[in-house]
Amino acid sequence: MNREILDRYGRSIRVLRITVTHTCNYKCFFCHMEGEDPGNRSELSAEEIRVVAKAFRRIGVSEFKITGGEPLLRRDLIDIVRKLKSLGAEDISMTTNGSLLYEKVDDLRAAGLDRINISLHSLRRDVYAKITGVDALDKVLKGVERAKRLDFRRIKINVVILRGLNDDEISDFIEFIRGDDRLILQLIELHPVGRGGEVFNRYFMSLEEIEKRIIEVSDKLSIRRELHNRPLYHLRDGGYIEIVKPVSNPIFCAGCNRLRLTSDGFLRPCLMRPDVGIDVKPILRREDLGEDEKISEIIRAILRIIEIREPSAMWRIDPGLDYLVHRYSFMDSLRGRIRINIPKRYIVS
Ligand code: SAM
């Protein structure tokens, strides 16, 4: 049975983003830390992650994205991937800074990792070190090459565009991925969350001008409705460029299909809402409950989170009235007046 769970805004829940650790070997000065508490050092075990993922599988979620911190620092990462795969996950992906990829990527693929996102914010050694705090560009490039030799479904190169630092490298990045249809260059707008909030005014730049240049080298544009309504440009000679605009794409949240599991075991609806969450550790650690009972309790928690889930950017779906309102402009003053009237939560089987 194919189940689909929709929230109050008609958005389907398809992906669980799992932070497996908060520890990182990089010091990216803009890091949003997935919206999690910077002081958080506790971690769910691989087995606890499996039980939460199993609850998500029961409500029809079959895609899992692993993130961090730096996920490759978790010694049992291969075990986590294997456990997710054993649940029948259709798509397991991971976002990594790539510094330890070369050594681990073969085992990860063998364990069932389907896709990989590698953050690579500059192709210039000095700029890379300035952005990440680590002189490791060569190691990451070696890891990318190794990953390209394996049969991953997709490899994404993630670049957060930082005004005055790497915004002049777009052509080099395009050359880096051009010609290979498994590669996507993912250009990401700086998000004012975590450290990103502290440096936002200095480094944020709209991707509008960059997009105009990309149009010139592309022959097709599609919109990834199931993934934040991201524009995806198809390069003429192969390869893709995806534009991620959490700030200036007003229908970004309309295409959001994910929930989050923090490294310390909280279910969260959005990285913009660190104030909203349900701690599932007490359920996972109850000794009087068997696995099925824990899963039932966790499903109840997931449904509560889905019920309070709301977009950070609000939009209006109204025939003839398609104006959009965004959190970073005047959304707050309109909050409440622009809700879409979709019946509370409902489940389609
Ligand atoms: N350590 C891993 C890495 O570097 O990819 C995974 C964690 S990192 C928080 C996940 C992704 O978020 C990376 O692609 C990173 O570049 C991106 N990111 C971090 N801070 C951001 C921000 N303020 N705005 C936009 N993207 C950000």
What does this structure look like?
It is a single chain. It is globular, with a radius of gyration of 20 Å. With 349 residues, the protein is an alpha/beta fold. A 12-stranded mixed beta sheet has the order 8-9-10-7-6-5-4-3-2-11-12-13. The protein has a two-stranded antiparallel ribbon with strand order 1-16. Strands 14-15 form a two-stranded antiparallel ribbon. Helix 1 runs parallel beside helix 2 (77-86) and helix 1 (46-58) packs across helix 10 (291-308). It is built from 11 helices and 16 strands. It is 30% helix and 21% strand. Helix 2 (77-86) links the parallel strand 3 (63-67) and strand 4 (91-96). Mean pLDDT is 87; it is low at 316-349. The structure holds S-adenosylmethionine.
Biggest sheet details: 12 strands, mixed
Work out the number of β strands: 16
Residues in β-strands, percent: 15-25%
- Helix tally equals 11
Helix share of residues?
25-40%
Q: How big is the Rg?
A: 20 Å
Mean pLDDT: 87
Could you tell me how far the N terminus lies from the C terminus, measured between alpha carbons in angstroms? Answer: 7 Å
